[in-house]
Amino acid sequence: MKKRVKITNEEIKTFLGAEPIEFPKYATQIINLANQNAQGTRPAVVGQMSELIQEFTGRTLQEWEKWYLEQHPTAIEKATKKITEMIQNFKDVMDKIDEEMIQRWVRDLVIVKTFIGLRFQEAILSKMANILKIHYRLATPEEESKGIDGFIGNIPISIKPETYKNKKVLNESIDAKIVYYKKIKDGVVIDIEEVGELYNDE
């Protein structure tokens, strides 16, 4: 007898009394993407599902559906409307997407974003230098081997992710001012606490 047995999602649905639902190829991926953009099934719209399922005292799928809709009678309709509107937005833009646009998107991803991901330290140094109205330069290979990414004026700077703060227990010694950064959806947030004395608040 096998020690490990796989139960597919479709089998789980069947075992729990759910009717099988078939969708055209790619449909669920598109609906899921639209939902991510529309935020149609966020707790504000459909409730906090992890909490609601704990409150539910019934046993069957039918009992759960009845109980849920009593708690949130308009949730399904609201979520559906949000997603439908986003799907329409997708339809409106589809006619505008041609091979030339796709090529620009691919180039931006493969060439530009890859380069920026590798070299964004220079953008951070440049931004700081611009604020301070002082020159900057990137570190030489020898300086990089010491943990230095560049210089603001004559001050060595090491650029580290925010998570590095928790790793300082490793006692890595870097003879430089540390600038911490955190990547966000539309850029990078930098923490300049260790070089704050360089800034002129005027």
Overall geometric form: elongated
Residue-averaged pLDDT: 86
Content-based structural category: alpha+beta
Helix content: 40-55%
Rg calculated over all Cα atoms: 26 Å
Return the domain count: 2
Task: Describe what is shown at a glance.
This protein is of the alpha+beta class and about 200 residues long. The protein is about 50% helix and about 15% strand.
Tell me what the structure shows.
It is a single chain. The model has no long low-confidence stretch (mean pLDDT 86). The protein is an alpha+beta fold and 202 residues long. The chain folds into two domains: 86 residues, no CATH class; 81 residues. The chain is built from eight helices and five strands. Helix 2 crosses helix 6.
Topology summary:
Layout: H1 9-15, H2 27-38, H3 43-46, H4 49-55, H5 61-71, H6 75-94, H7 99-132, E1 136-138, H8 141-144, E2 150-152, E3 155-161, E4 177-184, E5 187-191
Parallel strand pairs: 3-4
Antiparallel strand pairs: 1-2, 2-3, 4-5
Helix pairs in contact: 2-6
